[in-house]
Structures are given as C-alpha cells and as structure tokens.
Amino acid sequence: MNKHGRIDSYITFGGQCARAAKFYGELWGVEPKIMYAKEAPVPMEGMDPEHVMHASLSFDDGTSLLMSDGQGEQEFSARDISLSWTSTNHDKVMKVWQKFLDAGAKVLMPLGPEFFAKQYGLLQDQFGLKWMIIEAEEGWRAD
C-alpha cells in the first residue's frame, strides 16, 4: 500500500449481494469471499440467515470490490456513481463487455475509440450499476 492509503468501493445491494458477488467474481475470474448472517461470530437475531453481511473480491493489483446486502430494507440506488474498469488487453476487454451484455446489461454508450483510450464504453448492469469499460494504451497508469 502506498503512503496515501487506498480507496476501495463498497456497494450495498439490498438483498442481491450474493448474486452480484458471484457474477462479478465469474466476470473477472476472482473467487468471491462471502459472509452470511448465519456465519456471524455472534447471533444475528431477526436477520435472514442468507443476508450477506460482507463480501469481497480481491484483485492482483491490490484493489478490492467490497459489498453487502446493507442494513435492513434500504433500497439500492446507483444513480450517481459509475465504476471504471480498465485493461490494456483487447481480448479481455471484449470478453468482459460481452459477459456484461450476456447477463442483460443495457448499453448507454457503445464500446468504441475515444481520444483518451483505444476503446471506451458505458453500460448499466443487471444490478443497476454503471460501468465504464476502458481499453487503455500499453503503459497506462491511473495517476
């Protein structure tokens, strides 16, 4: 970890977390770690045993996608955020894009060349999250 620490995304899915974690894990070839209420170290009175208290996907670059079902019956809304995924591997970009489409994602901007990337596209997945998919030039860095 660098001297500034690190920011990871934490998303609540309002009852769909296990499904989302499994989908994203399959999408990127990462095994999701999921902790259900029934596995909590203390009894979770009144909570559905299948409620996801915490789930994570950890990637080779040290970043993580963290998630849960949230607290109670709050409604999930991803209206104001987008997640960005970048790769310099053309085949991987095309595979990820197609997997999103196969799972029912809605294309908001088709994948295509842009001045800042070999390819860029925006879609909204079956969970309501917007994803910016970017094929970057070799040597690309987020900073």
Q: Outline of this structure?
A:
This protein is α/β, with parallel strands linked by helices and about 140 residues long. The protein is about 15% helix and about 35% strand.
Describe the structure.
The protein contains two helices and eight strands; from the N terminus they run βαββββαβββ. By secondary structure, the chain is an alpha/beta fold. Strands 1-4-3-2 form a four-stranded mixed β-sheet, covered by helices on one side. Strands 5-8-7-6 form a four-stranded mixed β-sheet, with helices on one face. It starts with 8 loop residues before the first strand and ends in an 8-residue tail after the last strand. The model has no long low-confidence stretch (mean pLDDT 88).
Topology:
Blueprint: E1 9-12, H1 17-28, E2 33-36, E3 52-58, E4 64-68, E5 82-87, H2 90-102, E6 106-114, E7 117-124, E8 130-135
Parallel strand pairs: 1-4, 5-8
Antiparallel strand pairs: 2-3, 3-4, 6-7, 7-8
- Helicity range: 10-25%
Shape by Cα distribution: elongated
Q: Output the structural class.
A: alpha/beta
* Number of helices, counting only DSSP H or I runs of 4 residues or more: 2
Main β-sheet, in a few words? 4 strands, mixed
Q: What's the mean pLDDT score?
A: 88
Strand arrangement, largest sheet?
1-4-3-2
Question: What's the helix-strand series?
Answer: EHEEEEHEEE
The number of E-state strands comes to: 8
Strand percentage lies at 25-35%
